[in-house]
Design brief:
377 residues; TIM Barrel; 2 domains; 8-stranded mixed β-sheet; 3-stranded antiparallel β-sheet; 23% helix
Amino acid sequence: MPTLRDILDQRVREADSSLYEHLGNDRVRCFSCGHCCPIPEGQAGVCKVRFNRRGTLYVPWGYTAGMQCDPIEKKPFFHAYPGALAYSFGMLGCDLHCGYCQNWVTSQALRDPNAISPPVEVSPETLVRDALDQGAKVLVSTYNEPLITSEWAVAIFKEAKAAGLVTGFVSNGNGTPQVLDFIRPWIDLYKVDLKSFDDRHYHELGGRIGPILDSIRRIYSMGLWLEIVTLLIPGFNDSEDELRKLTEFVASVSPDIPWHVTAFHGDYKMNEPRDTTPEDLLKAAEIGREAGLRYIYPGNLPGMVGDWEDTHCPHCRETLIRRYGYLIQEYRITSEGRCPTCAAEIPGRWSPRFDGQITSSPFLPHKRSRLFTITSR
C-alpha cells in the first residue's frame, strides 16, 4: 500500500512561474507564503507540500482533503452575502504549526503522524458541480493554509467564477506580494486569522508577524472584501496592551474592516489555558471600539455577548442584522447595501435581496457525493 507521501507526490503540477525562482545548483525559492523558502533539490518547504524535484518546484494538485457546506457566517464572514451557503474545500499542509489548530488533521499532515485526512480525487469541474448541486453561493478554500496551494485554488476558482459563484480564502494571511497578485483576479473574499500582535508569539507558531501585517494592508488595498479574526486565548494574546495595538493596527488600515474576536477552547496540543469567557470577549470588544473599529463581533459564545453579535449602523445605531451564532434572525439592509433609517452605506458585499437563512448548521447534502477517497496507509 502506498503511503500518504507517495500519494501526494503523484498529485502535483509545476508551480506557477510567478511563484518561484531558480537560485542555481538546482535550488529554488518559493513565494507562496511569507517564509519564502529557499529549497534544495529533493527537499520540501516549511509547508511540507511544495517540493523541489531536480530544480523544478512542484505543488499540490488534483485532490481535496475535505469538503463541507456551512453557513457563510461560520467562516466567519458577517458582511458578505449573509445567509448564503459556503462550500468549503481544502488540501493538506500548512506553513505554521499552531498548537491549538482545530483543523490539525489536514493542516499538520506530513508533519504530525497522527494527522491523517485521506485525500479525495477531484477535478475543478467536479468540485464546482458538487458545490452547485448543494446550493452553494460561495466557494471557499480553507481547512489548511490556502496560500500554499494557490495554483490549485485558482484552477478551481476559474471554474467557479464562470459558474457564477463567489470565491474566498480563509487564511492565516502569511502571504507575499507575488502570491496575492497571483490570486487577485480570481478571488472576492478574504478572511485573515490575525493570531497575535507580538512577533514572539508568532515565532512560537512557526512564523513572523511582518508578512501578515503587510498582507493585510495589501489585501485591503487590492479591493478584496476583508474580515479579520482573532482567537482570544487567555494568557497568550489577551493582554490589554496587545489587544490595543492589534485593534489600532486594524483601524489604521480601515475602521470598516469587521473584527471577529472569538472564544478559545482547548484543542489539539493546547489544553492548558482556560476557556475564554464572555467577559473576556466583551473586554476585547470594548478595546476594539476605543481603537475606532466600527464592526466588532465577539464569537463562539452565542447569546452570551449581548447585541455584539448584531450588525448596527455606525451612524444612527439602528440594528441592521440580528444574529444568534450563525443564525440570522432579522435582516434590514436595503438592496443598495444601506441602512433603511439614515441611508448610510454599510461596507460589505450584499446581495440585492436577502434570500433567507439556508442553513444555520453544517449542511447535509441530499444525495451522495460522486467524489471518492484515494487509499493510503
